[in-house]
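W.,

You were right to be curious about this one. When I first looked at the sequence I had no strong expectations either way, so I just let the prediction run and decided to look at it fresh. Below is the sequence, 311 residues in total, followed by the output.
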Amino acid sequence: MTDMIGHSPQITHIQRVLPMIALSDASVLISGDTGTGKELVAQRLHQLSRRADKAMVTINCAALPAQNAEVDLFGRGNAAGDIVEPGRLLAAQGSSVFLDEVDALPLNVQAKVLRFLEAGECQLAGSHKLQVIDARILAATSADLPAETKAGRFRADLYYRLQVVPLELPPLQQRQEDIPLLLQHFAREFAANNAPLRFAREVIQQLQGYEWPGNVRELANFCQRLSLLQPGSMVQLKDLPAEMQQQSFSAAPRFVIPPEGIDLAQVELDLIEQALEMAAGNRSKAARLLGITRDTLLYRMQKYGLSDDSK
């Protein structure tokens, strides 16, 4: 059974709540940067649910045909109410539907997706007869959906209906303590008939300081490449790609408390305000600047009475 790898606080929290969320039929919105494992979370939720005996239906909303997205999703019928062309949602009867990149749903079908979420109703093109199915919706996005909603590119009612249970996955650079575990896991996964890769201590330290713009997916690809090129070897610093060797990982300057002391709450408030200003009000970007999750930032903004009107 697919599981999340890691023991960082963010991943531990997700591991703890997934079984509880899986027991419900409430829709789940999984957000996070590309490569953080959103589809893995959706698969885990499905595997732990009462619907696990049927295959999860995965729909990449960004790959829907521009002209026939509605038909692709819901299908086509005739005037007599017969199904002429079944859509992919009809195939999800009794199972889970994973709407990947849900922010890419065309505006002209978002209202029908909302209706499907609310009542399980599929309105087929060319037919006035409604098809009702029982399916659970899991959605994922790497976009800032509140910002997309304010810009008019995503329906607010659909956004709120999707995020009955919101889950946010942290970028890999915010969970550095998980990197040794992930390296070990993927080294074993890609070893085939060879001994797994091993990593020198200085290599692990270097990789913990790397930014990992592609997140866990980039780390998995890195392990797979080395497993093919130098199977069973001890990975040294010279074996790392140039971008991982050349990047400077200087430690953040140590904060020194002045003799007169500080007001810790005021320092935290100042840092949050600076991060929001640097990120032009984008809460997800501000959270990354502070090295915390978006949910933690929202909690601390509420704690200090900061406006939640920003993106």
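Here's what jumped out at me. Residues 215-229 form the longest helix (15 residues). And, maybe more interesting for your project: The chain has three domains: 9-168, 173-246, 264-303.

Coffee later to discuss?

I.
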